[in-house]
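Notebook p. 47: complex prediction with NAP.
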Amino acid sequence: MKRFLITGASRGIGRAIALKLAAPDVMLLLHGRDIGALAETCRAAERTGAKTAKLIHDLAIFRGIDDLVAEVGHEPIDLLVNNAGIAVVKPFAEITRQEWEQTIGVNVTAPSNSMFRSANAAGLEYRQYFVDCCENGVSKLEHILRQQICP
Ligand SMILES: NC(=O)c1ccc[n+]([C@@H]2O[C@H](COP(=O)([O-])OP(=O)(O)OC[C@H]3O[C@@H](n4cnc5c(N)ncnc54)[C@H](OP(=O)(O)O)[C@@H]3O)[C@@H](O)[C@H]2O)c1
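Predicted complex, structure tokens below:
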């Protein structure tokens, strides 16, 4: 049976992806925070014959990421959909420290950690160094900030 992990499957695009992937030979590991909404996704997916597991964790904090990875376990997964995300749409100067930390946590730290650890579980190795990720990330942010700063 194939195992697919989809983060942010409680609503929106994540739920739609989960329902597209739902099939009798599939175990869907469905993540979210909203217990009721996640249960609704699971019920809809199970109607196709798919098996589901609910993984309820806050990905804005390291503890939540660690707990998600631990719950997924060492058995390799066949597909990882890093969908959980936050979009804070406001000028850079108005972003609060909490919004910054949550966005970096959910949009950057959580997906990179879950990719790295699932690759490890599948016996794959990373060829790039962490410093490359940081340099590329910062230069992209710098580029976007330059575009937003008006003379
Ligand atoms: N919609 C668009 O037009 C658009 C465009 C470009 C990119 N995207 C990206 O596509 C993805 C899905 O978009 P969407 O519109 O479906 O978003 P959405 O409806 O706002 O759903 C976001 C999902 O992420 C989860 N999530 C948010 N914060 C979390 C946290 N701290 N810990 C754990 N889970 C968290 C939510 O879980 P709970 O509700 O259970 O908390 C929810 O399942 C996002 O990454 C988004 O940035 C969307």
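Notes: Residues 8, 10-14, 32-34, 37, 58-60, 83-87, 106 surround NAP (CB under 6 Å). The chain has a mean pLDDT of 92.
Next step: compare against the earlier run before touching the bench.
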